[in-house]
Specification:
alpha+beta, 5-stranded antiparallel sheet, 2 helices, 5 strands, 40% strand, globular
Length: 75
């Protein structure tokens, strides 16, 4: 997910976290096939802010690096 820049949208392709972390993220709707919008991901901070299903959440970059996403090209 860190390959996306601020303002870009993406679709999650896989989540490579342990079971408990995946379960917690699924309560927010973060799972395979979900559409996300990257709001803020500065290079100097350890957090990134995303919007998913109308909710804005922050994730640690260490966790976000284990979530794979591809850029969503809206046409």
């Amino acid at each position: 997910m860190l390959n996306l820049k601020a303002g870009e949208k993406g679709i999650i392709t896989s989540v490579r976290l342990n079971y408990e972390a995946q379960k917690k993220l699924l309560t927010y709707g973060i799972g395979k096939g979900a559409l996300i919008d990257i709001l803020y991901s500065p290079g100097f901070s350890g957090l990134c802010k995303i919007t998913i299903n109308g909710k804005t959440i922050s994730l640690r970059k260490s966790d976000a690096s284990k979530i794979d996403a591809v850029k969503y090209n809206q046409k």
